[in-house]
Amino acid sequence: MEQLDGLRPARLKVGVISAGRVGTAIGVALERADHVVVATSAISPASRRRAQRRLPDTEIRPVDEVAAAAELLILAVPDAELPGLVHGLAATAAVRPGSIVVHTSGANGTAILAPLTELGALPLAIHPAMTFTGADEDIDRLSGACFGITAADEIGYAIAGSLVLEIGGEPFRVREDARTLYHAALAHSSNHLVTVLADAIDGLRAALTGQELLGQELVGDAPGGLAERVIAPLARAALENTLARGQAALTGPVARGDAAAVAGHLAALTEADPNLAAGYRAAALRTAQRAHAPQEVFEVLTR
Question: What domains does the chain contain, in order, with CATH numbers?
Answer without folding.
Answer: 13-174 (3.40.50.720), 182-302 (1.10.1040)
